[in-house]
Amino acid sequence: VLTKQTNKHWSLFFFLAICSLLRAEDFKRKTIDNITSNRMLSIARDSTGYVWLGTDEGLNKYDGLKTTNYRSNIFDVSTLSSNRIWDIFVDRDNRVWILNDRGVDLYNRKENKFIRFPSKSRPLHLLNKKDSLFVTTRQHGLFVIDKNTAEETIFSFDPLDPMSISSSRFSIEQTTPITKDNGAIWVGTTNGLNIINLQTKSAKRHYREKSEHVESDTILAAYKTQKGLLIGTSAGLVLYNKTTNKTKKIAEEKTNNIAPIRETSGVVILGNKKTLFLNKSAEITHTILHKSPKKEILRLGIGQYLLWSKGDEKTVVINIETDPHHILSSKEGKLPVKPEDILIDPENNIWIASKEGLFVASG
């Protein structure tokens, strides 16, 4: 029988093990034959065990021994839309979605082909909710893919339609600008915040000049909680309750990202020099200081999280105790290369996709 004290010892053991595993010297360059390019931009693993590697010259499916290449062909619409693979997403049904320069492509596993969903400009952010994918684009608004029917719905700015969204532009500086809210979706653009009714397809705009809860018109991150909507901008973080129309200031610092923390039922707020942990009442419980901006968070295991950013070797490993007090500890680390994407597989191996190649630390 594991006691609380035993659990703490195991938690500390795994924390130290993860910290030692994330040392630069523990990573080895992994050479994969027949790969489209060593300049890697994205990585994912599907439930059948294939590792998908996105590069600047095509997509690769790796089974541990051999590699299958996929490239775009302008004369064949069943190929990739573009060869530069920015992101790879595997949903709960093991469907593989590819974000490239020209749109989103769905891999047809039975026919070994792709179904294209063109977006006119580069897709930037993806939110998966049940049967729908919500995808932002650089210049052509938000489009929604119905995964059952393959139908697309586009939301873009129309100066003649006050029920359209406030802007069609999104930026790579944003991290999580879209979040679901029951039958609606909050969409943060580079010029205002919007709430879209998914049944009526109509939007209500919120601008900084007219809304207390919009402190900057470029919304970097948004996340719906039980207490309301967390809105992160360069001016800080606020909590907005649309029912009462009240706003509460949470933090003054720039908010880079907002993500849930399973162990505490709260969220983490990633910033430039500090990261905040909020409980389910949206109260700050812990603050972690770090030397460089953090924009991404990866769950390594129970109570273990990695804070990192694309293009930066510096990381922070977080350990959260599972007892009621949720004691938190952290340790800064350094990766061997500047990461573009990071994957942890079921065997606890850590894969780093970088422009210098693929690096792996064995679990």
TrEMBL record:
A Pfam cross-reference name: Reg_prop
InterPro entries membership? Reg_prop, WD40/YVTN_repeat-like_dom_sf
Protein name, please? Two component regulator three Y domain-containing protein
Source organism per entry reads marine metagenome
